[in-house]
Write a structure and sequence with these properties.
Number of strands: 9
Radius of gyration: 21 Å
Oligomer: single chain
Strand order of the largest sheet: 4-3-5-8-9
Largest sheet: 5 strands, parallel
Helix content: 40-55%
Length: 227
């Protein structure tokens, strides 16, 4: 429903703002269902492929349909997970392209990131430092070296099992999530120039729910952003 604010000439309030939720689905179905319920109860119209609320033009491909949905939304929630999804075009997932589209069309964006990505990033950095040594303290280099050598010895005995402990070899970890995080953080820009790069790291559904409620149940905040 659309109403006119008589106090501000020409200002129209859309009582049902459109929120696009962009995320990979596999292994995250329950959380997406909860996010959909949370947002609809707060009075939003939610575009989410998992919920079946993404309008589909059969004459277009999946990527075009998803990007059209981004263009149609008022607000955008991007969820970065270790598993970035199976839909890939030009070496980028649908989720990543949706995030880029949201920025291109200047959509107000909120980003939620699985806390596990931070842990995986630190482990990869440790392994990379052992494979490509830099100047560090002797104690630090010794610790990293011992850890790396231990993983090498174990991997020779149990290669498939040890690959589970190395994020870049795991089937549940996609290195694209690190590129997505860098894109959101806009690392190539001067820190003073960066806006729209808030990333909320969440360990659990409780933390995720709190972040969504704090921002999307505050209608004055949303309207101040949109208007």
């Amino acid at each position: 429903m659309v109403t006119i604010d008589e106090n501000v000439p020409g200002r129209v309030f859309n009582e049902e703002y459109i929120v696009m939720v962009s995320s990979s689905v596999h292994g995250f179905e329950t959380e997406l269902d909860l996010i959909y319920s949370l947002l609809t109860q707060a009075g939003y119209k939610v575009i989410m492929s998992k919920a079946g609320t993404l309008k589909v033009n059969p004459r277009l491909g999946n990527f075009d349909n998803c990007l059209n949905a981004v263009k149609a939304c008022d607000l955008f929630i991007g969820i970065i997970r270790q598993n970035c999804g199976t839909g890939v075009s030009n070496n980028e997932s649908i989720t990543f392209q949706e995030m880029k589209c949201a920025r291109e069309f200047d959509k107000p964006c909120w980003y939620i990131i699985e806390d596990k990505i931070q842990n995986s990033k630190e482990l990869l950095r440790s392994l990379e430092m052992r494979e490509h040594p830099r100047t560090h303290s002797k104690v630090f280099n010794w610790i990293v070296s011992r850890f790396y050598d231990m993983t090498i010895r174990l991997r020779k005995k149990l290669p498939k099992v040890m690959d589970m402990f190395r994020p870049d070899k795991s089937h549940t970890f996609d290195e694209e999530c690190l590129r997505m995080e860098d894109f959101v953080n806009q690392k190539w820009k001067n820190r003073a120039e960066v806006t729209g790069n808030w990333m909320q790291y969440c360990k659990s559904w409780t933390e995720m729910e709190r972040f969504i409620r704090t921002n999307f149940e505050d209608r004055q905040l949303i309207e101040s952003i949109l208007w």
